[in-house]
């Protein structure tokens, strides 16, 4: 049976991915921030859902989002940074030849007033 790791499954596209994948017979490790979200997904979609609380800290998510912007030119938010950090951790342990897909469905724009941009001043070209 195919297996997927989907992050950000509490709402939105992440939750929709869980619905679609479980309907197609996949086992899904569902990344959630709160245990009750994982419980709800398991009740809704059954035994093919395995809630996976994040092992990425907020500091790691912010650092990774900044790295992605700096190194790859992708302006993403904190949750996308957490997704990339989790994908890198999975990739580090995955067998050779594994395919890892990390989707980054948010933008950094909505994080302008958060810790992601702490220390960045108006008119500054440095982070």
Model regions low in confidence, pLDDT < 50 over at least 5 residues: none
N-to-C SSE string, H for helix and E for strand = EHEHEHH
CATH architecture of the largest domain: 3-Layer(aba) Sandwich
Structural class: mainly alpha
- Count of spatially separate domains: 2
Q: Which radius of gyration do the C-alpha atoms yield?
A: 16 Å
CATH fold label of the largest domain? Rossmann fold
The percentage helix is: 40-55%
Supply the number of helical segments: 4
Strand order of the largest sheet: 1-2-3
Query: What general form does the structure show?
Result: globular
For the residues shown, what is the average pLDDT? 83
Strand tally is 3
N- to C-terminal distance: 44 Å
């Amino acid at each position: 049976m195919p297996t997927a790791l989907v992050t950000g499954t509490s709402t939105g596209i992440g939750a929709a991915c869980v619905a679609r994948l479980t309907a197609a017979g996949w086992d899904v490790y569902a990344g959630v921030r709160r245990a009750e979200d994982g419980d709800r997904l398991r009740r809704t979609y059954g035994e093919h859902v395995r809630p996976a609380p994040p092992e990425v800290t907020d500091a790691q998510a912010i650092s990774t989002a900044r790295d992605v912007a700096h190194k790859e030119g992708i302006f993403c938010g904190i949750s996308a940074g957490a997704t990339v950090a989790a994908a890198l951790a999975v990739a580090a342990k995955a067998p050779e030849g594994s395919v890892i897909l990390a989707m980054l469905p948010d933008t950094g724009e909505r994080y302008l007033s958060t810790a992601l941009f702490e220390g960045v001043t108006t008119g500054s070209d440095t982070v």
